[in-house]
Fold this protein.
Amino acid sequence: MAKYVLKRVLLMLLTLFIITTIEFVLIRMLPRELPQEKVQAAAIASRWEALGYNKPLLVQYGIYLKNIVTSWDFGTSWYIEFREPAWNVLTKRLLPTVLVNLYSLIFSIPVGIGLGIYAAIRKNKWQDQVISVMVMLFVSIPSYVYAFLVQYFLYFKWNLLPLQVYSLADAGNSWTSWKMFVSMISPILALSFGEIAGLCRFTRAELTETLTSDYMLLARTKGLTKAQATVRHALKNAMVPILPMLISSFIGILGGSFIIEQIFSIPGVGQLYLRSINLFDYDVFMMDGVFYTFISLLAGIVVDISYGFIDPRIRMGER
């Protein structure tokens, strides 16, 4: 297991380096346009020269990597937050992203798994068919469609919730206040529909297979009721592939959602990513890109390792 983990970590670092290199080259190759106003254009051109943006790409990349390795310096924001370290710009926007995604998972997990269990128990009956149709519908529709539907019904039609997430000033300067939570319900719902559908489909598939296993028949012949056999044996075994999926989802809450954050004006890392591209804030874009990539790669490693802890029969890295 130790060799396997070490190998995966090294591969993760190599992948992170390759993706970081590609992102750096692509963002620096984008054409930069100076403003029409001469004084402002001269100031920006002078700043680009001072920051080394006019040097060859390999030289720029070497300086960038050197600053990270020697002083953990990921650069500075010059447009989104003037002269603020890129790391600070990112961390300031983590909390709203984490909260919206965390609330969404807390709501989605019990609902999705519960519907999946119910559909598996009622397999091939009308309840299962209705749930399956709804799952296919929700899986097929992108989250931004849900966002517009939620806004239309809960704001325009019924006037139950605000159109967008409140700013800190409007919510008592606290991301965890009740007023802020109420304003987050709309994006939470928009993010939840797809997650619920995915969990429901996955749980139903795993539990349906487990319920038809030989050991379930043996459990019934030993005197257990269908409910007892399902809870004690079927659910326990069906959770083996489901729990790593949940672990991955919880790690992924740091990643945020580009479109949902944009629609509901959530000042999170997803919206920051888009703004950094539009404003050519190179260091913030790179900081956000490295962060996203690292979270995705880390989630993959944690999920693979978790299989070995959840099911002792699984030994990662063995032939």
